[in-house]
Amino acid sequence: MDKVMNIRNGVILTFIITLLLPFIVQSQYVLHVVTMALIWAISVYGYNMNVGYVGSLSLAHVGFFAIGAYTLGLLTVKAGWNFWLAFMAALVLSAAIGFLVGLVSFRTKGHFFAIYTMCVGFIIYLIIDKWDSLTGGVRGLIGIPHPAPIGPLTFDTLTSQYYLVLFFLAVTILVAKRLLHSLLGRTFLAVNNSEELARAIGISTRKNQLLSFVISCFFAGLAGALYASFVRFIGPDIASIVLGFEMLMYLIIGGIGTLAGPLVGTLLMVWLTQSLQFLQDSRMVLFGPVLVLLVIFYPQGIVGGITNHWRKRRKRSDLKHSESKLPKQVPSHRVNARR
């Protein structure tokens, strides 16, 4: 009961802070950076649904992020679509292309799967970079509109866009939580633990891997569409493999397979990156050893390590409590003396 109350109090406190953040933080720059971090967190949550739940390391995740961004940008700027219609199309197209890619990619396993998806991600980058007549090439795509109003709600200010991104992040976390504690989520974890054992009990591993991959691509497209509408300019760099590895780094540091890991890892690394801007490119020299040490001593990330430490401490406390309730034995020499 104490654990439930602690978790609930922590969630309530976090929810209150995020709601009041635009009124607490007076700097527009800080609010801009936080909004960007929340968009990255949505993408990392999608990454976690594939890597953390099923255990398939896809290196094409950033490519689907770019598909969502460019779909929204092209449909609104060049085709003149309504924003929310283009927004929905970006999500559907990201999931559909993910389905087609997954049909082929899951014929491979292990590091072959990772190499294949990395090639897919690089092909997406080349298409964006070289198809100049469609995507604008290295010039990028300019003038992507802000989200269109929904009734009395408008999204033309930084604060309103922050709340919009926060809403989609809350929905993403809720979906991840429900998925993790559902029968489908437990099926994903069974496939992650042992594909052979999962097949032995009648689970279709390829079907579940493909479903997890499509869900991951859907949330990558969601983050990409939000990014495009927030920044209003996109270029080929949003499909670069470097950005994909940064997302993977956020997930590893936060905790793969944990519910709070993607958010904790993303916010922490974005904060560190902004704090160490004076080091410029040299900050990666600092991030490298920190990441190596974290993988060695906390292989399950910050959230996973804290959770394991709490569980061990709780187990020791329960063991001591149960031992204290056992009846005390009478020493053997006193028994002999009575006889």
UniProtKB/TrEMBL annotation:
GO terms for molecular function: branched-chain amino acid transmembrane transporter activity. Residues 316-339 are annotated as: Disordered. GO terms for cellular component: plasma membrane. Keywords: Cell membrane, Membrane, Transmembrane, Transmembrane helix. The keyword Cell membrane applies. The chain crosses the membrane at residues 7-24, 30-47, 59-77, 83-104, 111-128, 162-180, 210-235, 247-272, 284-306. It is a multi-pass membrane protein. Pfam families: BPD_transp_2. It is found in: Cell membrane. Its main location: membrane. This is Amino acid/amide ABC transporter membrane protein 2 (HAAT family).
